Batch of 3 targets.
Target 1
Amino acid sequence: MPFAIVLAVLSIELSPAHDLVTGPVLTTTPALAALTMGPLGTLSTAVLAAGVNATSATYNQSWGTLTQLIIGNFLGLFVVSVASVILSNAMRTRRQGEIDQVRRIAVAAQEVVLRPIPERLGPVRAASLCLAAETGALVGGDLYEAVQTPYGVRLIVGDVRGKGLTAMRAVAVTLGAFRVSVHYEDDLTEAMNCCEAALRREAAVPGTYSQEVLMEGFVTALMAQVPDEDVVLVVNRGHPPPLVLHRGSVQALMPGTPLPPLGLEDLVDGLTAKAESYPFVRGDRLLLYTDGVIEARNRDNDFFPLPETMEGIRASTTPREFLEELHQALIRHTGGRLTDDVAMILVDRLDEDTAGSGYGPGARGQTARSYSSAHRLS
């Protein structure tokens, strides 16, 4: 708006209608700029208005006959400009203080909802990464957690359909149910069922969710269990399959029986879920992630090549360094423009001599399925 006013005044002064007195109109431009442009923008607007004032007076040869009026316009512009710069600086300081307070609250909320994963959990080393697509947000619709239990290390990663507070509420409910159930449910499938039941109870509370969310909302979720044995158990409810990096080659742990996401189980008759077992030996790396990773596109609309990127990262990296390299590759691929939230958990199987779960033996008697049953993620 300030620049539009300056342009309009300049057009009038350089036209046959230059007899109109436009100086007082220019005086308003710094005040308008102070509302949105900050101190530097306000000052530049004031300088531009002064330049237009001087240009119009010179072009119309008004210095001799209207000198007092021109000086009055300059004086008014100067006073308003000084006041506007001071006001703009005060508004900017206050706005920055409010933003800092919101960020502190967001950080506290993130630490409660998505707390950091310990670097060492029983037989594995671990690291996590979460990126919110929304500008300025710290918590999005993705969820993750890793907990050491009597049955081994149990992990969850999920993606809530939707954004905003509704998605964050579903994230909190799902993680709360997971953190409680994984310690007393010996069957990983039952822990997943507890999360499903918690979401149903939450949806039954009147006014908690809108009708649209109740009709169309769902949560894709994947749970994994790493016992002391050289296997990983997986229960997948409509989520992208985890990837295992084994001797430099990535394998996708595809489910034998696809299952619907949490919240859509009514669409399937006779739903029976069970944990599926896959090899996970010393030196292997297991990556759990959300679809924001594999669906990230570049300018040519190509998807992010997650398996190939994993295979290109040095084997000597720690889990945290590995995720950081994945993060940088993702940023390069998308040009820094994430269109969806991203969450990842990476776990490394440790040497038996250094593993030591410290929480009792892991689940026993599980048979491992060979890697030939898994398919490479394309």
Note: The chain has eleven helices and eleven strands.
Target 2
Amino acid sequence: MPAPSALRRTFAVIAALPLLTLAACGYGSDAKDDGTAKVAAGAKKIDGLDSVKIGYFGNLTHATALVANQKGFFQKELGATKASYATFNAGPSEIEALNSGSIDIGWIGPSPAINGYTKSKGTNLRIIGGSASGGVKLVVNPKKIKSLKDVKGKKIATPQLGNTQDVAFLNWISEQGWKVDAESGAGDVSVVRTDNKVTPDAYKSGSIDGAWVPEPTASKLVAEGGKVLLDEADLWPDKKFVITNIIVSQKFLKEHPKAVEAVLKASVETNKWINANPDEAKAAANKQLEADSGKALPTDVLDPAWKSIQFTNDPLASTLNTEAEHAVKAGLLEDPLLDGIYDLTLLNKVLKADGESTVDDAGLGVK
């Protein structure tokens, strides 16, 4: 592991990036409010709020939020308090929106949550629930790479320096005994930081030999002739690791716990419905993607991408801690103080009321 001074210098460089918080599946940084929420007649407001502002990414790993929006689960639980939505293309913009009060609750990847929390010295957010696991793959050009050992010497894309997949790939490289400079990406493997929205074109042009990326980018590469060489889930105990969390601003959590509980209840309801109705849920998620972005995913991308994602209320806290350790090991992050990043009190209340098993915070909860 690099010396503390080296880590501080590295962190200073990375902190100059926009929070180093590109979410697991980010495609940019724009946000928009779709303004389509409908309030049921005769319903009452929660906590006296006119609205609860919910943020998420237009990606299948955020399908809990996509489906809850599309099927009206959020609005059902919020009553006359309008569920309003903002869609994001990157972690920095969602964290900034949370910090400014432009959103109250958001679906986001582990790296943005870790970095947002540590950058604010533990004052801006809490992780209040889980949403999804999996959905990340190493996809390669089968003509150039036929086995894992063939990755050495090749050009492999990740979404951004220090993002969730970048850290995972750097850690995997290290475990092979290969050397790569984390910041430049140069070494035994060339790590090429490429925005997910252009990764398929980079693959088609031959400028990269593969990519360690989330869904649906991984399945887009497969549709272009790529081959899945490794599913990241195979590297984790029980094949589970956090890809999407639910976060809330600490101020909103303190002032409006009933509203937060309502959103969590909707999330738990939605995950139950998704797991009981996978085909219908997949269609609903894709319909909301089309509503948000103007473009639905084709079947040859949607179907395999959906199969690789597990929807869960468990935030898989121990895996978030491991991901933070991987970032420290790579020299991309000082050893973060994550104590208090979780507050699963309301989620466990909802789960108990629903007759489901409660979840734990791996010792990283509010004391």
Note: The CA atoms of residues 33 and 86 lie 4 Å apart.
Target 3
Amino acid sequence: MKQKLMTGKLCLAMVLMSFIATGVNAGTNNGSPFYFPSEPGPYAVGYETYQISDSERDGRTLLLDVWYPVRRVDTKDAADAAYFFVPESFGVDPLPARFAKVDVPIAPRNVKNLIVFSHGNNSFSAQSIALTETLASHGYVVVAPNHTGNTVFDPTDPFEVAAVNRVGDMGFVIDHIMARNADEQDSFFQQINPDNVGVTGHSFGGFTTVGAAVGYEGIQGDPRISAIAPVSGVIQNIFTPEQLATIDIPVLLLGGTDDQVVPIEGNDYAYKNLVGEKSVHQVNLIGANHEQFAVLCDLGDSLINSGVAFEDWSTDFLGSLLLPRYTRVCLEALLEYETVERLQNQYVVSFFRRYLPISGSFWKSEPYGMFLFPDWKRQDKPDSKAWRKSGRDPSDLWY
């Protein structure tokens, strides 16, 4: 049996290498059916933002960011997206999109899967655009709510209030997108698979990701969720082993070994207790810290571009908040910020491509499993550690 598995692994590797050897990769844009998960996929990306209101929770309002796949031809004259991370009155330049465009139609034909992203504590919905835009470019509709009361705009809710609101937000956002999917007048009509939803999030958003799947404080887990990927998630001391054991969908636990905010031991705890599903992955990035999984360095650069020189940050309200983190994350980190960004894309995109495959894609989902393990090497890839639970020999890390 093991010989057959190893043979299958070798064949898949040889096929993939043949594509790479002939220059077929994410950067060629030559009609290739395979795109590296760390890089933009076959689609261009559209973006829209708007507010929704939940009548069942006293009219709670959420500002949404939505990224979705579009045809490249439709972006010819489209304007670049931009993201405000503080009120416009601060006079700080918005965060420029990596490649998302506004006022472009969603790509037709292929039915897409939904991924909901949850931001960190007192952060904002566009905090991880390198990931959310890349996921959309690989064929997903990605929706990120600003969790009202727990954002950079309004950091007012205590932890327990914010935690309950956040988990409730996720089900409401899924309901909202599925209502658009069922509306004949909506641009998203019949574009999304209602039974295959992924959830990911960073830090407090990692807690929200797990809570959306397993439930929290009387809120039931959402059965539409088919895979989750908490990143540096707040899990330990909140979810019991018994709660984690009820999760029976694929899980990716991603974190950094130099994380001083949410130590990597929290992922060890979750991995140990996620016993109800065999497809549980844990990936530790050696030397990565907590804030490197978001776009903090880009935020600092936006401040500089707005005319506040780095040496003057201590006298600027926003700069004084960013200064210690910017120094630690962007100037003194053990692992380069750009490297963490690329590896987060590699693992999270590969995970969802493997477990929430794209409808109609030429490539089946299995080859993306290759990128979930450190066996896949690139010249500049640092060491990382990865584990996967399996019903077979624990030493067999292939599908």
Note: Confidence is low (pLDDT under 50) at residues 1-32, 391-399.
